[in-house]
Write a structure and sequence with these properties.
- It comes from Sutcliffiella horikoshii.
- InterPro entries: Aminotransferase_I/II_large, HTH_trans_reg/aminotransferase, PyrdxlP-dep_Trfase, PyrdxlP-dep_Trfase_major, Tscrpt_reg_HTH_GntR, WH-like_DNA-bd_sf, WH_DNA-bd_sf.
- Its cofactor is pyridoxal 5'-phosphate.
- Keywords: Aminotransferase, DNA-binding, Pyridoxal phosphate, Transcription, Transcription regulation, Transferase.
- A hairpin with a 2-residue loop joins strand 6 and strand 7 (218-219).
- The protein has helices spanning 13-26, 39-46, 50-62, 118-128, 143-157, 172-182, 196-204, 245-258, 281-284, 313-322, 332-343, 346-373, 398-407, 437-451; strands at 66-69, 73-76, 104-105, 166-169, 188-192, 209-215, 218-219, 228-231, 261-265, 290-295, 307-310, 378-380, 387-391, 410-411, 413-414, 427-431.
- It has 14 helices and 16 strands.
- It has three domains: 13-76, Arc Repressor Mutant, subunit A (Orthogonal Bundle); 104-110 and 349-451, Aspartate Aminotransferase, domain 1 (Alpha-Beta Complex); 116-344, Aspartate Aminotransferase, domain 2 (3-Layer(aba) Sandwich).
- By secondary structure, it is of the alpha/beta class.
- The protein is extended, with a radius of gyration of 30 Å.
């Protein structure tokens, strides 16, 4: 029996023999129980070593394409099912769509990475990267980090809790999923408009949810029965509304009366530019009705993927039991570095520095919108956070505004996907976390040149 095998320099020789024999077997070119050439004979035919052929035959045998009979050699296995063999074709990469040379990123959720204290961070990281820290952490997270978070929340947000109430997670969506499963997939209330990633978690888990409208004081008191309400009181996402103290009290009283829990997502509370910091809803809660969500994505780096939950004491033991077999998904080394970063005072200093920087960026953005775009563009929600909403003139809808911006190297976000009920068509989100002062000025100027081209 003659077998034609062609070898090239692109892949290992044994893998090419294996692939070509497998293809011949699957395509029935080699009939069942046909004897394959001996290892030495095939090696001589291809001018290669016997061991190379042996590797190929052993791979075929391990996958069931051939079998051996002692002192007789290798034989083709009988494959009962018809099989269409897919020959690997050369993958031709798609051509990239031409992009503008310079992109100015006004997308929401970004931070100014240039302001991060890399030298301090690297020094702490090298210090924690040692043999004693190679074992995994507990599912709750490193105690020293939980201790530092509890102390920080007391000092900066007026939230009194103990380290045992703090649990470390790898991002908002993971902790929301965990809490929803812990509460037995109960019906959830979602602010409308609201955080689209929160809604995505509920949809993936097939959890029923209700859209809860906003007013000038923030999330309204729900009129529908539910077990959990998700809200962003410090800086409502995406409108920027700061929930009034009276509304916070109303919601807590509603939760007590309805036997309901509230998730307070305090995601960018550190960056407030008008007035004194507002106390957390958790600080007003004396009945264990508020579950507090915090994150390091805005204050440190989004790529760190580290967040935390503060569970009310009344739920703590049940929450522990629910998660007892889980493992932490957050790097132990990273947790220890963040703990030392807070403990040594670098975290507070970094937030103060970034608050000053973002305040300057916000001022630059407001002035640029006023100077370049003009009075017909209204800014909404500029008191805190790292983004604003821009109300567009009637002649310019959301979709057109985004397309014109992208065609000119500017990335911005749509706001309509955040709404479940009445979607606006003349608003966009401008984030100012990432772009520099110069890029903000240049970007808004460029937007004006394309958005105002048809201005009457």
């Amino acid at each position: 029996m003659e077998i034609q095998i062609l070898l090239s320099d692109n892949k290992t020789k044994y893998s090419q023999i294996y692939e070509q024999l497998k293809q011949a077997i699957l395509e029935r070119k080699l009939a069942a129980h046909t004897k394959l050439p001996s290892k030495r004979r095939l090696a001589d035919m291809l001018n290669i070593s016997v061991i190379t052929v042996q590797f190929a035959y052993e791979q075929l045998q391990s996958e069931g394409y051939c079998y051996t009979i002692e002192r007789q050699g290798y034989f083709v296995s009988e494959i009962e099912e018809e099989w269409t063999y897919q020959v690997n074709e050369k993958i031709i990469p798609l051509k990239d769509t031409p992009k503008p040379e310079q992109v100015i990123n006004f997308k929401n959720g970004q931070v100014d990475a240039a302001g991060f204290p890399y030298k301090i961070w690297n020094r702490l990281y090298r210090r924690e990267l040692m043999e004693t820290n190679v074992n995994r952490t507990t599912w709750q997270g490193e105690y020293i980090l939980r201790e530092q978070i509890a102390a920080y929340l007391q000092q900066a947000r007026g939230l009194t809790c103990v380290p045992e109430q703090v649990y470390i997670f790898s991002g908002f969506q993971q902790q929301l999923m965990n809490v929803c499963l812990f509460l037995n997939r109960c019906t959830v209330g979602m602010e409308d408009p609201g955080f689209i990633r929160a809604r995505s978690v509920l949809e993936q888990l097939h959890i029923p949810y209700h859209a809860i409208p906003l007013d000038e004081e923030g999330c309204t008191v729900p009129s529908t029965q539910m077990k959990l309400l998700y809200t962003t009181p410090a800086h409502q996402y995406p409108t920027g509304t700061i929930m009034s103290v009276s509304r916070r009290v109303e919601l807590i009283q509603w939760a007590i009366k309805q036997d309901t829990y509230i998730i307070e997502d305090d995601y960018d509370s550190e960056f407030r530019y008008k007035g004194a910091p507002i106390a957390t809803m958790s600080n007003l809660d004396s009945s264990d009705r508020v579950i507090y969500f915090g994150t390091f994505s805005k204050t440190l780096l989004p790529s760190l993927r580290m967040s935390y939950v503060v569970i009310p004491k009344s739920l703590q033991s049940d929450f522990e039991r629910f998660n007892t077999l889980h493992k932490s998904t957050v790097s132990k080394i990273d947790q220890l570095v963040v703990a030392k970063f807070i403990q040594e005072g670098h975290y507070s200093s970094h937030i103060a520095k970034m608050r000053t920087l973002y305040r300057s960026k916000r001022l630059c953005l407001m002035e640029s919108i006023n100077n370049y775009l003009g009075e017909e563009y209204e800014v909404i929600g500029d008191a805190a956070g790292l983004h604003v909403i821009v109300q567009l003139p009637k002649r310019l809808d959301e979709s057109t505004a985004i397309k014109l911006a992208r065609a000119n190297g500017i990335e911005i976000d749509a706001i309509s996907p955040m709404y479940q009920l009445h979607k606006p068509s003349h608003q966009v989100i401008l984030g100012y976390g990432e772009p520099s002062i110069g890029e903000i000025q240049r970007g808004i100027s460029l937007l004006a040149s394309v958005w105002n081209v048809n201005k009457v």
